[in-house]
């Protein structure tokens, strides 16, 4: 007998109060939602998450740079608010803190990514949440850490610059390289989720929650720090080496007639396979290329020989010839092609998104949950706050038990 | 009364059997160790983790490209094996599977990063671990997922090429950019830790463990997928834009006399601040730059004006002037400088490492745990397998209860 029901998601039964905006915070709560937590996104009734204003939009006429119709939705919002419920709450209105405390009492986790100090000033910081619910795990995502003196907006490009990451890519004497993936915005939330889940594990022992504090600068700098930059410098080895790494030669990215390929032929057997694929097996006997040490010593000549060959052939041909010789090789693909790789789509690592009302107006793909479980599923509930406060009734009435009169009063007073 | 004792680490009491090698897998178990789990690293007695052979090394004479003395240690190993115990076990020797099963019975988590299918073939796959301990959470890290047909070594540069990431950085028509951070090797383990902790949370409900399966290609492609590449293309907006993003102009990295700075002045108030910092406040009235839309439409002219100014000044001067106007700005720093930022060191996001016997022979820094907890600490026990099997007695005798005779027999048979 086969069980055809969908397995549970690993974080089912946990509830998240989501105070986040823009990218870093919403990506953290997106991961929690995809792992099965119930996420309640709070937005200011007077405008909501700024990501709602990010171009491009999608709607009845497909993708557009400007908003054409009232029900056009920013693709950023469509992708980042997946699976979340949306309620409105104006923290500057009297009474909002009571509503926030009521939400905390029902929840396990709070996530915020205001500038350091702002949540406390708004009366929705960790101290307030813990007072309402000592079990709460309260995660703050900020540019430089919750303990940083205030000021200094932490945009992705600012953090990339400070972290050293921009001087890890590119040729040795070239300008720095801005990474096209918003890596500072994306990496901190991944560590935030680790921190939240680790605090949950500790709560099973201690019975109480705590504050989890992740810095964008710290998360990205820790990644930069895995390479031994100062040791390489101390040993006189170049650290920033562009498309290839000559201390491992042949290793890196090489030009073809119609694009680029990545090739790794560090070891003896692989180098010989490469030379056969080049139809120049004699190179294996050439004293410049006969041993690993000599290949490294003569890396510029070796790279020139490879490029002189690869440049005459299409990417597909170079890949086919090297694969036939068992040499690790891959085409350098563009994002659109990579996102549509059947392997990646089949595992849910990228996923389709569409406007709920106009599902056939585009072929958009976005980030999925890149983790597979043998006894659990991942994925997003079919819920999304298209309008601000779309789920006010589900949350304030059905979850918190507020009656119609109270809801009306809160609405009239501009609290929700 | 102040409690001056160190708070517990969040994952204390959990035990990890670590079958990993190279970078991706060891970084996953490094994060678990830093969060307080006990990690037992298993190495083949006939050679151990290949990262032990990574140049540069550190020893009594400081940092060197080649191993000069018997007790020189690869900096890769020093940094990745921190806080781990090390035992030897040759899985190809008869009897090794019994030892592995005994280890699984004492453990909560197993992590491996063999090529897909290899762990099963060696008799140390999930099925074997679960048979020994149904509560075990068994995490596989691989290039393309545990379900991928075999073959194809998944080096970082191969995965970077396939993921589309290389065509997100750099100028629109420039060659692809290899990221200098081994981002494919680093990102998959972060998701592996999320998967492991989510499965732990589910185990509190279900009582049983499961298999967690993370693909390097999937993890990195999901990051690439957060930007709406195909929507930008459909809307006719360039996606790959080099050092600046003209659709947000002025935004990006600009040249100074002695380096580069990142500047973000997207909004009205910030653009005016920038013009004042440039001592050209009249630009705010220039019809080309007077509104956000006009600045975007005339982005090349605006960037030329900024660069003509910034190029004449030192980085420090540009930063000081923009900070005085409240405009987000940062110097583009080199990794060495970034790793030594007092903010980052103070939060343990980068940490010193040293050879245990020659602690003063170098000033090396490496990755820390970029998460701060209010009721927990992070960090690494002062344990490290300098030699293969350094902790055989602690683990095989004290934890598993093997007696001296059995240890001798296992050693004589080449099992450990």
Automatic annotation (TrEMBL), chains A, B:
This is CaiB/BaiF CoA-transferase family protein. It comes from the Bacteria. The keyword Nucleotide-binding does not apply. Keywords: Transferase. The lineage of its organism: Bacteria, Pseudomonadati, Pseudomonadota, Alphaproteobacteria, Sphingomonadales. SUPFAM superfamilies: CoA-transferase family III (CaiB/BaiF). InterPro entries: CoA-transferase_III_domain, CoA-Trfase_fam_III, CoA-Trfase_III_dom3_sf, CoA-Trfase_III_dom_1_sf. Coiled coil: none annotated.
